[in-house]
Amino acid sequence: MTEPSKEELEARLHYPLGDALPEQGHTITVAPGVKWIRMALPFALDHINLWLLRDQIDGPDGPVQGWTVVDCCIARDESRAQWEAIFAQELEGLPIIRVLVTHMHPDHIGLAGWLCERWNVRLWISATDYNSARIGSQSTTGFGGASAARFFASHGMVDPDSLEKIRARSSYYPSMVPSVPAQFHRIMDGMEVVIGGHAWRCISGYGHAPEHIALHSAELGVLISGDMVLPRISTNVSVYDIEPESNALRQFLDSLERYLPLPEATLVLPSHGKPFSGLHERIQQLKNHHRDRLDEVALACQEKPCSAADILPVMFKRPLDLHQTTFAMGEALAHLHLLWYAGQLRRETGPDGIYRFAPTQS
Question: Which of 40, 63, 135, 333 has the highest CB neighbour number within 10 Å of its CB?
Fold first, then answer.
């Protein structure tokens, strides 16, 4: 059976705002008290969605009206300029009173330090991702450097030029996340955060980030899904050198189950792509996508023992630059590891020191 195209899958979802996108420096209101910001990124994935939530918190002299920011964009001059335009044009004369970050990846937390200092407010984030970001902003956590190069080499990346470029990327994370606030407010699974009089329930997710937090408001019928549920692309699920035996894809698929009790009509606000409804449909599409990739990987390993590098052309039919290749390596390994932990594959080390996966002997 031919796998449906992205266009065919996307047609099964509903986009209530059509093709509307926020203009630079402006917002679109997507729900009562919820504004959508879209900022540019200098990558193949060229944008991130950020959210402004009308809010009120207790101050020393009584209630303080303002806005909660959800996610921040990477640290660069263009992003700061876009934020300054938002401050001038979209805050209705009110301050930022809280910064909440779904997870520690640079496009989500990069400007958290700047925003918190700019408005003298607290960062709200899971403890795991806070500490991962603090470590990453001072060194590296699976995005480059000697450790990452050794890890990729052990899984079949043997091109000396690529490995040297990865070794040289030791400042990759701190270049986009130069600082993380010295203090934070912990959010965790099941916790309710009251924002603007509405209760938003925290839903933890794993496999994409250490402890990703999505936010659901039953009253508004809105899910801020972060990167866990995206409408057009599949979330990157990778194994990194810092946790080299992780079963990231199993964690991700299990995490998707946490969203199934939410209504199908929930308005999903993703970090990339457009707001949509059709949550259960999209979750099933993601499950099907990974099921098909797992079948391809298992078949390739039946033909010959495969390293993660061997799996790249199996899973990715398009040319990849080095930046994309590092993520693709992690994703290939995530699929191999799920089959390995499920007992369908065994892992062996060749004389060349490279890990390869082959079917388990019956």
Answer: 333
